[in-house]
Amino acid sequence: MSFKGLKVLLIEDNEMNRNLCCDILKIFNAQVVEAENAENGLALLEEDLPDLILMDVQLPGMDGIQATRLIKRNPEWNRIPVIAITAHALEGELDEIMEAGFDSQICKPFKISDFVAEVSRHLGVEAEFPQS
Description:
single chain, Rossmann fold
């Protein structure tokens, strides 16, 4: 099974991390919409709703925690699962992440299989790695 027909909004300021996540999602046939910061990501939400949001926690300007709080307060957006992508989360930070309304988190660096499993869980599909 793949992510075909499913849209993921990826909000990540680091180009290398954004490209990696985007490439993985595209291997599984997801439609990916990218934003370099929370403000652009929120503007994209105004245009079209994704099935899932992957949100870097540490973003320039508005951080991922603030953006997720706004998403979860909006009745049109709050049903969309939001996965935190974070490089490091101390115990207090993890509590703040989950209290902000994130549905789960993926810690960087991550194993591709763990990333795919977490995305699959929130999209409600089982993804199998493509055969070469």
